[in-house]
Amino acid sequence: MRVTMIGAGYVGLVSGACFADFGHHVTCVDKDARKVAALNRGEVPIFEPGLAELVDANVRQQRLQFAVDTAAVNDAEAVFIAVGTPSRRGDGHADLSFVYDAVREIAPLLAATAVVVTKSTVPVGTGDEIERILREKRPDADIQVVSNPEFLREGAAIQDFKHPDRIVIGTADAGARAVLAEVYRPLYLNAPPMFYVSRRTAELIKYAANAFLATKISFINEVADLCEQVGADVNEVARGIGMDNRIGGKFLHAGPGFGGSCFPKDTSALLKTAQDHGVPLRIVEAVAAVNDQRKRAMSRKVVAALDGSVRGKTIAVLGLTFKPNTDDTRDSPAIPLITALEDLGAKVRAYDPAGMEQAKPHLPGVQYCGNAYDAAEGAHAVVIATEWEQFRALDLGRLRSAMAQPVIVDLRNVYRADEMRRAQFRYVAVGRPGVD
């Protein structure tokens, strides 16, 4: 099939590369000419394991190409909208201007029987507005609008795309269903459940899924605070409740709060949609509030580990991205943590395997280092803010000898208290007993 992807950002690029790998002929359209030229050379501007190799292979096999010109939609049977929907400045609503601009631009060029598919995360009713625009611009055509939300985890996006838990297709039109079934047909051996629902239901599924996962994170973070007060271990609590298959163990990892490109903006957008319809979502409201408060609270944990003051002290922060295996620092808990430490008079040295360039505009006062041990040189405390694998097995002897003071604040609970005790560190974890 001929598929066009409008937008070559994270979702568009991963989806386009995977569709091409299925054997479809895919053109990803993006307005950034430099990005397009680089992608046609096989150069990928984002860090996602396996993506650069996938793009390069399919560009060389001429199944994947990139263009600035939207003329690529002319002969496409399916056109996916995968542009950004960031939180709108001032009110938290999803900014749909990029979506609607893209639809207006491609409307005159679409084949009369094309299927337009929203991959972008959009509020309920967005598909209705897209349909209205297309009917206005192309009253003679039979263009169907489908919602097909993505459920990709950064760091595991290719695996998620090729081995999905479910594929949600929001449309009541039989012809559109047939087109999407053909697009995803190469997955039939994996037997993914094709879940056909109404368009509005599909739009809400995406937001509800992210809000529920965010709820699990905020819940276990509050339980971690209680564990610290009563002397319990949140890791064992999480495992104990996660063994119940009605609950499950995923997203029950206590830490500094959730970040990234999805959970913060999607919970905000869901709340705004609910408010617009007069439906209070008090649990989601609490989830967002708990997460915001938690990010600020992490700096206090570092201050307490250094006996009440970080003024004039050097803090090494390991990890700047919101999670490992990505270069995405959007809403990363490390950003407000470092900002707060700097406000309190600390000097911050930092290292991240992939996210330092993205962090620099937000954290200009930080000294960026070449590895974890360089960051720890002369530090009064090391803070583990992201659970990159290389931070899970640090040479503790080497680390201790580099530091001015042997203090580790482990915001991701990647170490055990007994190994920190043997290495003679003062160790502070989240919701678990530490080492004084």
Question: What report would you give on this structure?
Answer:
The chain folds into two domains: 2-197, NAD(P)-binding Rossmann-like Domain (Rossmann fold, 3-Layer(aba) Sandwich); 232-436, Rossmann fold. The chain contains 16 helices and 14 strands. The protein has helices at residues 10-21, 33-40, 51-60, 97-106, 126-137, 157-162, 174-183, 199-230, 234-242, 263-276, 282-305, 334-343, 356-359, 372-376, 396-402, 417-422; strands at 2-6, 25-29, 64-67, 78-81, 115-118, 144-147, 167-170, 194-197, 314-318, 347-351, 367-368, 381-384, 407-410, 426-428. The protein has a six-stranded parallel beta sheet with strand order 3-2-1-4-5-6, sandwiched between helices. Strands 11-10-9-12-13-14 form a six-stranded parallel beta sheet. The longest helix is centred in the middle third of the chain and has 32 residues, at 199-230. It is elongated and about 75 Å long. The model has no long low-confidence stretch (mean pLDDT 96).
